[in-house]
Amino acid sequence: MARTSLATAFGIAASLPQNPLDTDRAAALIAADIDRARVEIRDDDIIAVRADFVSTCQGRLLASDSPDVETSIAATTRALVASRTFNGTPVRLTFTSNGTVEFNGGHRTSGQTVIAPVYHPHQWAAGAGAWLRSYFSADIGVVIFQDLPHPFRRGQRAGSLASYGVVDQRTADHAAATAALTAEDSTLAIIRAHSSSPVIPDAATERPAETFEEAGGLAPWFRLGWAEACQSALGAHPEGLRPISGTLHDDILAHVSRAIATVRSGPARVPGEDGWRFVPMGSGARVLIEPATNAVAEDPRATIGLGALVERFSSALWIEGLRADTHVRTDGSGADVRIIVP
């Protein structure tokens, strides 16, 4: 007989605080709302808290016409993925300081108010989780969830912005997605698994130091999409190239070899390019561009082709995160390219 599992979710429409609250007072407000709803908290329950509630507790609300909105977006943006304008209004897809990819640095508009993203979400979840465990005398987990716009993690849509006491990220994401299925006005949701133990009983109670990398970071999927677009612009066929390492484990020779393949993928774009060949030296930190045949010296197009190759090779190295110090020989014998790692 197939084994089945069951989880239930109970949504609670808690009121948002009128004034900023520290983590313990915010946790006390959550506990009061749960008690008012007459929900008995048990071991292995996960308390899911909407991100907007946490941001409100942290006082991260801005008037939509405030000049501080742009400053706040800049502060929570690690890098720009893409930007577009819609009816004159700029919309940016960004890497955020919370390790997600969201619009406008994770800021959301509600009426005339802009809600800034949660500040140090993992730290808040740990603090609130420790307080709630003590209050309810139960081994519970805490998840911060959010609905649209969904964040991204490692190329996948994920609902959990942060968690505490939950066995793994996958479980936290499932709990957050389940919480988001409750009524739209639910600020809290109690997730109860009936055939598994999604909570770590002895989770650390101290509030962790938090950096982007410690929170999990991001495999640069969006940067890779940008890299493939640049490769295509250079006339290459990305599907025929060796994929870039998502964990940044490529060595210099792998980067340089892919850059050469990027330049050579597809037909020559400038007359005279075919008269030259790339010769990687040693570990790839130096590349010579030499005549492919003895007839190159007599071909007036060879110099034009060499210049085009050098320029495209520099662009291909830039895609790989490298720079080049190039010396073009005046005697027509080619070029010497030394690779620079920023």
Describe this structure as you would to a colleague.
The protein is of the alpha+beta class and 342 residues long. The chain has 8 helices and 17 strands. The strands form 5 sheets. Strands 1-13-2-9-12 form a 5-stranded mixed β-sheet. Strands 14-15-17-16 form a 4-stranded antiparallel β-sheet, with helices on one face. A 3-stranded antiparallel β-sheet has the order 3-8-7, with helices on one face. Helix 1 (23-36) packs across helix 4 (121-136) and helix 7 (252-264) packs across helix 8 (302-319). The termini are far apart. The mean pLDDT is 85.
**Overall pLDDT, averaged?**
85
Order of helical and strand elements? EHEHEHEEEEEHEEEEHEHHEEHEE
Topology-level CATH name of the largest domain: 60s Ribosomal Protein L30, Chain: A
Radius of gyration: 27 Å
Alpha-beta content class: alpha+beta
Give a short synopsis of this structure.
Helices cover 30% and strands 25% of the residues.
